[in-house]
Each structure stands twice: as C-alpha cells, then as structure tokens.
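Blinded run. Sample ID left blank on purpose so nobody reads anything into the name before looking at the predicted structure. Input follows.
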Amino acid sequence: MGHLEKAKDKILMGSERKSMVMKDKEKKMTAYHEAGHAIVGLLVPSHDPVYKVSIIPRGRALGVTMFLPEEDRYSLSKEQLNSQISSLFGGRIAEELIYGSDMVTTGASNDIERATELARNMVTKWGLSAKLGPLSYSEEEGEVFLGRSVTQHKNVSDETAHVIDEEIRSFIDANYARSENILKENMDKLHSMTDALMKFETIDRDQIDDIMAGKEPREPKGWSDIDTSGPQGGSSASAEKTEDNKANTETTLDAKDDLKDSSIDGAADQH
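Blinded prediction complete.
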C-alpha cells in the first residue's frame, strides 16, 4: 500500500529530487511558503481541500501544496476563482510576514503568474467584472501558419484598456489583502505547520486537521517505523530512499521535468 501511495504522489506532484540537498534556512523558508498556501486554502470559501503538503523538492519546485477536488467539476464560480487567487498568494505573504519584505524569494514567480492569469481571464474572458460586465475583451491568438496575421489587432480603446488593468489590479489587491489577514490571524498555525514540515517533510490531511484544530500533529502513517539513525537525522526523504533501494520490484514511473500548471478544469491544483 505504501508503494501505491508513493506512485500516486509521483503522478500528481512529480518525482522527488532526492539528490538535492537544501540548507536548513532555505528548507524552513520553503516550509513557511507551503504552509502559507495550505492555511489560506483551508480558510477561504469554496476552495478544494488540501490533499498533501511537502517540502521534498519535486521537478523544479522546492515544495508542493496539493489540493484535490472532492468531485468532478466542469466550471468554477467567481467565489472559487477568488479563493484560488488568495491561496496562490499565501506562500509569498508567509515569507514576507516571517522574514520581511527584503527577504521575499523568487519562489512565488509561478504563483504570481497564475494569479494574474486568473484575474485577467475573470475580467476579459469570463465577464466577472462588475464594472466591465459580460463582454469579452480577450484576443484569441492564432498560429501564423494557419493564415492568421502576425500582428495583433487592437480591439479596445486606450480608456477601456486602462479600466481592464484597474479591474485586474482590484481582484489581485483584494485577494492579496484577504490572504494577508488570514495569515496574520493564524500565525500560531503557520508556525505549527512549518515545524511539522521540518520534522516530517510531508504531511497529509490527518496532520493538517490536527494543526488547524490547535492540536499537536500526529505522526504520519509508518513514521515510527523509519530509522532515525541516518546522517540527516532520520528525514523521511532518506528513509524513502532506503526503501526504494530494497523495493526492486516497484514500478518505475517516468520522471517529470517540471510541475505542470493546472488548468481551469484540472483534476488537481498544486502551489
């Protein structure tokens, strides 16, 4: 059963980069970053539940917060989209609250890109801006070899373009402020989840529920069986590496070069 769980995580979150060694300082900052995503995602309305949080490097990511929907979904509401934007900013805000604005890292670049894209689509494509209404302002980009013009024709006025920018900024600022308020009000949980990630490296719903309830997080399943005499102080990554060496019959899955961004109708969302 343990091998099946690891295989599922490899498919959903990417292959572990077990050869990568992170300094404790960077590892702890990553833990705060991922804890920020998870806590905001848990406390905003209509957000997918947290499946797992990990600070084991996977693909190009130093850590992963994975959200999984509870049922099939074919569209998203304005409330759900706003909640996604808020949770995307949770990692950057956690870094800023703990280490200060001058120590914020580049780790949030993909989060910012995805949040901006969501906000832009809400305004220009999905008609969710109260000021601009249900009109489409997006320009569909076609390939040149299909006969489309190389130059893009401007179909909005300068004034409308300015309003679009203001509306995108409004969505971003409102969700950034909401995310910041949530983390400020739950600093104890932010520290507790970070400590759990530093200890276990990967936590799932059981540990997350304990932390959100103000309890000491229980040990992950199988944690007591891990040998703690290794050079890394018994980290789960070291234990899993030993286990992989013994499991010669385990199915090998193709490694992913990168964690692919989830689409609007994707089965899982990772931060």
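Unblinding after everyone has recorded impressions. DSSP finds eight helices and four strands in the chain.
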